[in-house]
Amino acid sequence: MFLSEFCQIICVSPGIFPLRPGSISSMISIRMKTPHLRVLFTAIIVIALAPTVKAKSLEFPEVKDLPVQTNLPDVMTMVDGTKVKTPEQWQRRREEMKEILEHYELGHAPPPPGNVRGKDLKSRAVLDGAANFRLVHLEFGPKQSLGFDIAIFTPAGSGPFPTIINPSFFMTPGAGSTNAAPARAEISTNAASTVARVRFNFNGPVDPERAAHGFSNQLARGYAIVTYRYTQCGEDNPNFRTNSFYPAYPDYDWGVLMGWAWGLSRVVDYVETQPFADKNKLIALGHSRLGKLTMVATAFDDRISLGAPAGSSGAGTGAYRFCGPGRGGKEGVEDMTRKFGYYFVPRLAEFTGQMQKLPFDAHWFVALTAPRPWISI
Fold first, then answer.
1. pLDDT tens digits, one per residue of 20-51
2. Which residues, at least 6 apart from 17, have a Cβ–Cβ distance to it below 8 Å?
3. Cβ atoms of 90 and 377 closer than 8 Å
4. In a domain, 267, yes or no
5. Residue 266: CATH number of its domain
6. pTM across the whole model
7. Is residue 17 part of a domain?
């Protein structure tokens, strides 16, 4: 069966959603018993946020020259040591934090193309008329030459609906599919066990009806779903720069993780123009490496109302200083840069063996979403 179980974590009342800039607020920290997990549940809510202010030009020392910081780097202290006490200072601090993350971990993405448009390829009713499906090809970039396919599922009715944007390991529903019954998931039996283990066919076409059944709970509760195969925004291998939209932007040093997040923001560009979507209630949801994707996208794109990364693992929401070999947790930054170095800029690997020199940590991504809510499991 087509899986979308991770959507379940955010199926709360559609009326419970974030405050926009300009809201009344305070600083909230939900403290956990385990010290290094406290950061995962920190939300900063600021009074009457000022417009975004670009940070002053920062200096970026070589990794070897960075100071040791045994504690988590403070999100409320600016590079020059100034404590953040006003909304205007927080906006400047946010820009500082983004620049530091770009330099030492993610790389730099091009600006939004500003010309995203969608071309409808297919549409039909699903779930016996309880919902509708559309396959849309997004076009953007130089001469509208770039793009990828997204599948949109909406409840019957006019909306607007809270909308879940869910990058997927599976093929985009309806893309390249036929009316034939979808292939069954592969079953393999481990010789050491008599229990059969399901292996999902991530590369097979996904029938929209089958996908709609996977999203039926969310659709019944009044949510729209936008989903797409994430590798359309960069192949998940070291050769990603040779495909998707990367050849059009050769002067940017982004790792593919930032590229995937940039792709999700192009979905937002389109969705916020559509009458079915409540643009004040846009949710980014992803699991595992797609949890990292949604974590980065939500931190860098203020239009995303709620970030919901699940199981993001190494270089995800777990504090980098406290996850990995000899520090606790199963997977750390060293593991990620060794196995998936192309996710990041090469500079991140230089912190191997000296994680306490990191000038940032995972809690920065959480803080950057303020004053929007955040769910992470």
1. 433 323 323 333 334 343 333 333 333 333 44
2. 162, 280, 281, 305, 306, 373
3. no
4. yes
5. 3.40.50.1820
6. 0.83
7. no
374 found inside a domain: no
What is the longest distance spanned by two Cα atoms in the chain?
63
Structural domain range at position 60:
5-11+24-177+189-368
Q: Is the dihedral of CA 117, 123, 126, 132 positive or negative?
A: positive
pLDDT digits (tens, 9 = 90+) for 272-323: 999 999 999 999 999 999 999 999 999 999 999 999 999 998 899 999 999 8
pLDDT tens across 142-156, in order? 999 999 999 999 999
* The residue to which tokens 């018993």 are assigned: 33
Measured in residues, the chain has a length of 377
Which residue pairs, CB below 8 angstroms and at least 24 apart, start in 14-18?
14/161, 14/162, 14/221, 14/222, 14/223, 14/281, 17/162, 17/280, 17/281, 17/305, 17/306, 17/373, 18/280, 18/305, 18/306, 18/371, 18/372, 18/373
Is 86 domain-assigned? yes
**Gap between the Cα atoms of 292 and 346, Å rounded:** 18
Q: How many CA atoms lie within 13 A of 46 on its CB side?
A: 21
Instruction: Report the amino acid identity of residue 180.
Output: A
Q: What is the mean pLDDT of the chain?
A: 84
Number of H helices, E strands in the chain: 7, 11
Give me the helices (H) in the chain, please: 87-101, 208-214, 216-220, 256-271, 289-300, 333-339, 363-368
Q: Which residue is it, tokens 């593991």? A: 335
Place of tokens 């949109």: 152
Total of domains in the chain? 1
Of 235, 233, 200, the residue nearest 340 (C-alpha): 235
CB atoms within 10 A of CB 207: 21
How crowded is residue 77: how many other Cβ atoms within 10 Å of its Cβ? 12
Q: In what order do the strands lie in the sheet with 117-126?
A: 117-126, 131-140, 146-155, 224-229, 161-168, 277-287, 306-310
